[in-house]
Specification:
Number of domains: 2
Largest sheet: 5 strands, mixed
Shape: globular
Number of strands: 5
Low-confidence stretches: none
Structural class: alpha/beta
Helix content: 25-40%
Mean pLDDT: 91
C-alpha cells in the first residue's frame, strides 16, 4: 500500500497526471471511489479485498475527464475493462496512467495498453465453480420452467438502473431504455419491462462483459443479475474459445469467420 501511495503522489507532484482515481474509506468506513488531486491526498488511498467497485466506469465520464489526465488504481477487473474500452476506441494511448494491482496485491506499472493485454493473457476470466453449477442447473430446466425462473428472479427489480450506472461498458450518452419515440423497452417495472431490460442489457454486453460483477454489487436488492452475463460468457467460451478483452481482435459478436461451423454464416 505504501508503494501505491508513493507512486500516486509522485505522479501528481510531477504533474504527469492531475487526478488519481482510487479507493478510499467513506463516511461509513466502507471503501468507495475517491478522486485525489493533491500529493498529500494520496494518503487516503487504500486497497484490500473489500475494494470491488470497477473504477473503470469513471474513465468515460465527462466530469472526470474535465479534471485532467487521470491515473487509475486497477486490479484485474479494472484492467480487463480498460482493455475492452481501448478495443472499443473509448480510450487511446496516453489518455491515462494505469496503476495495476496483481492478484497478490503487488503494484504493477504498464508502458502501454498492449502490455496490459499481454499481462491479462496469463490471467484469463474463469467462472467460479459455484456459478458454473448454478448455470448448469438453470440450463437443464425445461424451457417453460427456465423462463419462469428468470421472470421470478427479476420481478423485484424496480428499475433504479444502478447496474447500468456501475458498469464501465454502459457508456452510451443515451440508453435505449430512455428512448420513447419509438419506445423499445417498457419503462415500467413490471414483469415484461424487467425481463426485457435485463435481457437487452445482457445481450449488449455479450462478448464484452469483463465479469467484474459490478452490476450485482450495485444492486440494492442483491438480485444476481450477473448470472445472465456469466452464462453468456460460458456460452461464448464454448462456442468461440478464449474469451476475454483483446485490443488486437474484434469483439466476438461484431465479426464473423467464414469458417464458422454454423451454416447460417455462409
Amino acid at each position: 500500500m505504501n508503494e501505491l501511495i508513493k507512486k500516486a503522489a509522485s505522479l501528481l507532484e510531477a504533474n504527469e497526471v492531475q487526478v488519481v482515481i482510487g479507493y478510499g474509506l467513506g463516511s461509513a468506513k466502507r471503501p468507495q471511489a475517491i478522486f485525489v488531486t493533491t500529493p498529500a491526498g494520496c494518503e487516503q488511498l487504500i486497497f484490500d479485498n473489500r475494494c470491488i467497485q470497477n473504477l473503470a466506469v469513471y474513465l468515460t465520464k465527462q466530469e472526470i475527464r474535465k479534471l485532467g489526465k487521470p491515473a487509475i488504481v486497477a486490479p484485474l477487473p479494472v484492467l480487463r475493462s480498460i482493455v475492452q474500452l481501448v478495443a472499443e476506441q473509448q480510450l487511446t494511448e496516453g489518455d491515462l496512467v494505469v496503476l495495476g494491482i496483481d492478484p497478490d496485491g503487488k503494484l504493477l506499472e504498464f508502458s502501454s495498453f498492449k502490455a496490459i493485454e499481454s499481462f491479462l493473457s496469463d490471467h484469463k476470466i474463469v467462472i467460479e465453480e459455484k456459478y458454473l453449477k448454478k448455470i448448469e442447473e438453470i440450463k437443464n430446466m425445461p424451457v417453460g420452467e427456465r423462463f419462469a425462473y428468470w421472470v421470478e428472479l427479476l420481478e423485484p427489480c424496480f428499475k433504479c438502473y444502478a447496474c447500468r450506472a456501475a458498469c464501465p461498458l454502459c457508456y452510451c450518452t443515451r440508453c435505449t431504455i430512455e428512448n420513447n419515440q419509438p419506445q423499445w423497452i417498457p419503462v415500467a417495472s413490471h414483469l415484461q419491462g424487467n425481463l426485457e431490460w435485463h435481457v437487452m442489457r445482457a445481450m449488449h454486453l455479450a462478448g464484452r462483459c469483463t465479469d467484474c460483477e459490478a452490476c450485482y454489487h450495485a444492486c440494492p436488492l442483491g438480485i444476481p443479475i450477473h448470472l445472465l452475463n456469466k452464462s453468456l460468457i460460458q456460452d461464448l467460451s464454448e462456442s468461440f474459445g478464449d474469451y476475454g478483452p483483446k485490443i488486437s481482435e474484434p469483439n466476438m459478436l461484431s465479426s464473423f469467420d467464414p469458417d464458422d461451423k454454423e451454416s447460417f454464416i455462409r
